[in-house]
Fold Mat.
Amino acid sequence: MDPFSNIPWTAQSEYRALPSVVLLSRRWWLFFFVGGAMDKKICVVSMSVGKPASMTAAWINNELIMAERTSYPERRRDMELQLLRELREKEEKGFIVLVEEENSFITGRVGQRVRLRDPFMNGRPVLIEAMQIYKELERQKAIKLPRKESGKYILHQSIFDSEHDKKGDEFFNINWSEITTEHVLTLLCCFATEYNNVASADYIRAMACEVDSRDDSSLIASYINIIKKTQIMGCARVPQGILTGKNNIL
C-alpha cells in the first residue's frame, strides 16, 4: 500500500517532489530572510504511551497533513529491527524523525528524542508548544487528520483544558490519564512543523552554504554580502595589542 495514498491528490505531487535531503540553499535563505515557509516530510514515533506507533505527515504550504499510522509489537526485541530499518529509510529520504521515548533505545541510533515534558527553546514544555500549534492549525482549518479513525486524533478540551491567570498568561490543566497514543502522535506532528535540529549535518550545511554564482545579483546574495561585510568589519575593530611572545606570536 502506498503510504501517502490518503494525502489529497492536490498535495501528493508536491509531497513527492520534496527533495530527499533538505539542504535547499537558496530556498532556505528565502525562508530565513523573506519569511516564507519551508515544506517538510515528517515521521514521528510514540513509545511511552500505549502501544508503540509511528505516523508519517507532510507540512506543505503551511498546512499539516497527517498520512498513515504504523503500529509495532510491544516487545522491544520484536519491534527493534523493523522500527530501526523504517526510520533509517525515512531519514535517508529527508524526513524529520522525532521519537518520543524516555531513554535512547531508538534515538541512540536514529532520529531525535523528544519528551513532552522537556522545555522547548522558548522555555515552555514541548507539550504546551505542540498544543498551541494544534489549536492554531485547527482554528485556521490547516490540519488534516488521518482518514482512518480520525476522531481518535482530535485533542479534546476535556484533556487539555486551558485557563488564564491574572496576568493573562494561558496555562493548561492536563488530564494525563486520557492521553492516548493517537494524541501523542498528533502532538508530535504539530511540534515537528516548528522543529529544526540545529545539530544535524543538513541544517548546518543549509546555514553555511554558499549562493551559486548565478544568484549574485539576487536579493539573497545582497543579504549574504551584508553579513560577510559585517563579519569583516567586526574583525577589524578588534584592538591590536602586544601578545606575550615575539612579534605578537604566543
